[in-house]
Amino acid sequence: MASKPQAGRKKARARSTTAKPKQAKAAKSRVSKRKAVAKAPTAKQPEPARTAKDLAKGQRDISVSEFFAKNRHLLGFDNPSKALLTTVKEGVDNALDACEEASILPDIRVEIRQLSETRFCIAIQDNGPGIVRAQVPKIFGRLLYGSKFHRLRQSRGQQGIGISAAGMYGLLTTGKPIVIVTRTGPKKDAHHFELVIDTKLNAPKVKRDEVVKWDVPRGTRVEIELEGGYRGGQHSVDAYIRQISLANPHAQITYVPPKAEEHGAEHVFPRVTKVIPVETAEIKPHPHGVELGVLMQMFRDTKARNVRSCLQNDFSRVSSRTSGQILEAAKVAPNRRPSEAGRDEVERIHNAIQAAKIMAPPTDCIAPIGETLIEAALKSEVSAEFTVSISRRPTVYRGNPFLIEVGLAYGGDLPGDQTITLYRYANRVPLQYQQGACAITKAVTSTDWRSYQMQQPRGALPVGPMLLMVHIASVWVPFTSESKEAIAPYPEIIKELRLGLQECGRKVAGHIRKQRRHADEEKKRAYIVKYIPQVAVGLQEILDLNEKQRDKIVTELTHVLERSRKM
Amino acid sequence: MASKPQAGRKKARARSTTAKPKQAKAAKSRVSKRKAVAKAPTAKQPEPARTAKDLAKGQRDISVSEFFAKNRHLLGFDNPSKALLTTVKEGVDNALDACEEASILPDIRVEIRQLSETRFCIAIQDNGPGIVRAQVPKIFGRLLYGSKFHRLRQSRGQQGIGISAAGMYGLLTTGKPIVIVTRTGPKKDAHHFELVIDTKLNAPKVKRDEVVKWDVPRGTRVEIELEGGYRGGQHSVDAYIRQISLANPHAQITYVPPKAEEHGAEHVFPRVTKVIPVETAEIKPHPHGVELGVLMQMFRDTKARNVRSCLQNDFSRVSSRTSGQILEAAKVAPNRRPSEAGRDEVERIHNAIQAAKIMAPPTDCIAPIGETLIEAALKSEVSAEFTVSISRRPTVYRGNPFLIEVGLAYGGDLPGDQTITLYRYANRVPLQYQQGACAITKAVTSTDWRSYQMQQPRGALPVGPMLLMVHIASVWVPFTSESKEAIAPYPEIIKELRLGLQECGRKVAGHIRKQRRHADEEKKRAYIVKYIPQVAVGLQEILDLNEKQRDKIVTELTHVLERSRKM
Q1: Are the beta carbons of B144 and A61 separated by less than 8 Å?
Q2: Do B125 and B190 belong to one domain?
Q3: Predicted local confidence at residue B228, as pLDDT
Q4: How far apart are the C-alpha atoms of A212 and A233, rounded to whole Å?
Q5: Is residue A254 part of a domain?
Q6: What sign for the dihedral angle of Cα B163, B168, B171, B172?
Q7: Chain B closest-CA separation from residue A445 CA (Å)
Q8: Is residue B160 part of a domain?
Q9: Is residue A27 part of a domain?
Q10: Are the beta carbons of B27 and A272 separated by less than 8 Å?
């Protein structure tokens, strides 16, 4: 509670009289080892060297672009090779989102041209719906602008930062504008834009805007020139393209790596299904996830005329009956104007909401990859002897629906003496950095894989011939940073992840046990087979049999062995 | 390079004729296991379900407050107990910065009042210079506003987000405004403000603004009510207050934990020095750290009339001679107007800057804690048998000066069978979260402590009775997130950290060796001492001595032992 100034004054005076003995006591008990400087007898401090007025002169606004330009490692532009990967990722995320929103089977082209040792031109082209001319500058030349932030719906992008930030990084490192060609349909003009972001204003400056001929009937092409680095390995663009193709089997991706002309290699990752992921619904917030301050804001902004219809219309899963119960419990009249409800009333409503029984949020806002496609993806990725996959049912964290999928491949070509390979995905986008900080990794390391017949150093990933592919789909993925590299460990998410992993773990354990039993049988059988002739010879001698009878015994014993130890 | 639209068209057409065979080849070589869906004979796609026009309707601005309200885990408000700690931290950071900027010995008071199980009121009060009335709403009711972002100078805050975000979190969770009382001097009025942040506009809404009586002659008091959690342990407010007091020995901190009235405990952490840290200078950017895009921006914004004086005035360490050499190498006339320089010219200047020999940045912008005070802090924190500390000389990453300090305490009360304790600091602020993601941790785990006589599991923190206190001071600390919990692992920073750790490591190794030698001697001596009487009895028998002679032998042998094995 905000202390009233008068009270504050009283308290302050009270303190000045009582604080001293208390201080002395506390200092003795808690910080006894620390020697205080003797208080100077003239405790009066001199006038400050700088006054508040001096300091006020330095106060000013910081534009969000300036902020992220200076802190560009927050967006994934830490170093040249990561900057290159992040640019590709942001472009592909947008391309796939655009296609899916328009229900178009995505056909994406990623080109990386190397211009000098450290300079690259990245081009991402899609067959999406295109962008209307007026929107182009804002979408590409302004941070925090977009369509995905203010809604609750599953998509790859959600912040309205990514592609503009990539353009800003290109501008910072090369001074070159971002180039966009877009066309909204075969009968429409194709527009060619070149623009830069004015970081001080966080606003686009258009350098060129003209109609051009383009033999692509519909789609968008983005080109960014930047200082970058191209490298292989786990964090490479190549690995990214392969992984995103795995999680988006409905997309065809053509990838032209640097120096493709030399090697003549344009890699095509064809689609393995023609089914576009089910279109996800946009949902309203669930009342259980709403905070008091947000509820107050909603009451101020709502178009509803009374609190009852506000609760019913602006939230999901609030029926007429539920809203009635909530308002009764809160002792607020149902026909109260939302904008007139005071803080106390809203707080009572907020408390009543928490206590009310409300159905879980609808889950048609989530589009899983699906067990069949995950297994198909795993099989295309590795030659394993066993694969299994699980799509869990959707559930909720902080009011946001989410869903976990786990795919597991075991044995075969996978190396057995190393830590397992873990592919992490969020809304079908591979996460390649910050594995250690991710909820997915935490869930894997905190699962007891030893009970599933795997080796596992304490607190670490298991060791063995296994590939894990873990996917979280949500209307709002809680990333640990703007660069979207790891998922924040909400308890509800960790719990679901562990349940999915355990389900797969039990199945692989069954397989491993069967495999071991098999190997044991083989060993025993080989042992017995080896001694059958000796047994026969022994019997021959004891029973005085002829050679034919002896051979028959060998044959029969072998038969018996095969029947009894059928595998 | 941005492809010209005409060229783009030509290329696209060329692709459509040649792409097919290439695609087939690539698909075979790279993704042979993946079966493509047969192309439907009627490959023409239907019209998109949603057009670009439909999609454009959803596009809109996202205010930075909305962004951080939704992503508040980025700012350290992940959960109730962390939110409480973050609020205290942001308040104390600001209080200490304000005092030091005005050269006032800080006297900070932190109060936590528990209002209900999950609701707390946090108050932070300082004896700083106060805030002029007009600035109060913006400083506390707007994200990305402040004096510390646009300058290169060491301070705790640097983003202009912290305290407004804490106020926003309070508003979100309790609907209550942030309360500020501030006074710029004994003869000035004290102003009482209550304000909230309008997240949609990222702007303050003042609810109350009045002159009040306040018996504090100068300073600022901030009160925030929030949903929080109070807990103990490594991440507690108690641990934070103790650690910040360690790194700020010139500050007196009075801490009133929840339920202080019941326990009667107000903890005072008295100052151990009256010396305010040396006032740090604000510096200009060093040319070696500047990026091409930034240089272009500086040329557009400069007040200098020609490029030569721009280089000399707007950068540090560029003499008249250096700027002449740079411009000569870049083949740009020294009297060229900066705003008229084209991209090519600026790029040539940028390249010439990289090639030029330029003095390292000035380092008087960094204020170390100092070896003496670090050791004093360690001694006040633990009863160790050995302490050592190092302040490294300032050096530079990405043009930003920084400095590393390491303090090490060993033995004594410290537990020997556990992982060592690591206190991380950045600009005198303790870092309590994300230890695993921090450059400091990386530097410690990648140091070979076994060569310094310590146990160390591979890739982990060493094990033993040791406390490490590591401090990085810089004009711009590269945090891995807005919540300022961990330091990004720039190679230059890791290198300096390791050098500091190694220096301390060598010293503690000397101590441990000496200690072991000592223990060995003790063991041997005990062994010999035990047998001296037997030797004497033996000699007595062989030489036929009397008891007095035998006792004399014991005494003399003991003397000899003590002389020869003097320790």
Answers
A1: yes
A2: yes
A3: 94
A4: 39
A5: yes
A6: negative
A7: 15
A8: yes
A9: no
A10: no
For A103, the closest of B50, B145, B212 (CB atoms) is B50
User: Buried b vs exposed e over A502-534: b needs ≥16 C-beta within 10 Å?
Assistant: bebbebbbebbeeeeeeeeeeeeeeeeeeebee
Q: For residue B401, what are the β-bridge partners? A: B396
Which among B140, B151, B8, B13 is positioned nearest to B87, based on CA atoms? B140
Q: Is the same domain home to A110 and A201?
A: yes
**Token pair listed for B273:** 């020095």
- The end-to-end CA distance of chain B, in Å, is 75
Both structure tokens of B434: 């994300």
A270: nearest CB among B27, B129, B160: B27
Tell me which of A297, A320, A355 is where a domain ends.
A355
CB contact under 8 A, A181 and B129: no
DSSP letters for B135-173:
GHHHHHH-SSEESSTTSB---S--SS-HHHHHHHHHHHH
In 3-state terms, what secondary structure has residue A96? helix
Residues A215 and A228 in one domain: yes
Check CB contact of B386 with chain A, cutoff 8 Å. no
* Residue with the two structure tokens 């004896």: B127
Q: For residue A405, give the H/E element and its range.
A: strand A400-410
Phi, psi torsion values for A181, nearest 5 degrees = -120, 130
Helix and strand numbers (H, E) in chain B are 16, 16
Q: How far is CA A133 from CA A204, A206, B51, B420, in A?
A: 14, 12, 13, 60
Residue B485 DSSP SS3: coil
This model of the complex carries an ipTM of 0.80
Q: What CATH number did the domain enclosing A75 receive?
A: 3.30.565.10
Tokens linked to A188:
């429409």
Is the predicted pLDDT of residue A27 greater than 80, yes or no?
no
Digit-coded pLDDT (tens) for A419-453:
999 999 999 999 998 888 899 999 999 999 999 99
Residue A75 φ/ψ region, left for φ over 0, alpha for ψ in the -120 to 50 degree band, beta for the rest: alpha
Q: How confident is residue B550, by pLDDT bands cut at 50, 70 and 90?
A: confident
Tell me if chain B has a CB within 8 Å of the CB of A32: no
Please give the tally of structural domains in chain B.
4
* pLDDT tens digits, one per residue of B474-522: 999 999 888 899 999 888 999 999 999 999 999 999 999 999 998 888 8
B224 & B95 share domain: yes
Compute the distance between CA of residue B57 and CA of residue A324 in angstroms, rounded to an integer. Answer: 34
Phi, psi at residue B111, to the nearest 5°?
-120, 135
| Separation in Å, CA of B563 to nearest CA in chain A | 38
In a shared domain, residues A507 and A522: no
Q: Do B102 and A50 touch (CB under 8 A)?
A: yes
Please say which residue of A242, A269, A296 terminates a domain: A269
Residue A34 lies in a domain: no
CB distance B338 to B299 below 8 Å: yes
Neighbours of B201 (CB within 10 A): 12
Q: Which residues contact B480 (CB under 8 A, 6 or more apart)?
A: A73, A74, A481, B434, B437, B438, B486, B487, B488
Contact across the interface for B267 and A30, Cβ inside 8 Å: yes
How far apart CA A541 and CA A533 sit, in angstroms, is 12
Contact A434, A482 (CB under 8 A): no
* Residue B454 belongs to domain spanning: 371-512
Tell whether B174 and B191 lie within a shared domain: yes
Instruction: Please count the other Cβ atoms lying within 10 Å of the Cβ belonging to residue B279.
Output: 13
Task: Dig out the tokens for B493 from the structure.
Answer: 């920073």
Strand partners, A421: A467
A431 and A444 inside one domain = yes
Both B550 and B493 in one domain: the answer is: no
Residue owning tokens 């040539």: B348
CATH of the domain at B340: 1.10.8.50
Tokens of residue B96, six digits: 């200490």
Whose structure tokens read 């106020």? B167
Of the listed ranges A206-210, A313-317, B105-109, B396-400, the least confidently predicted one is B396-400
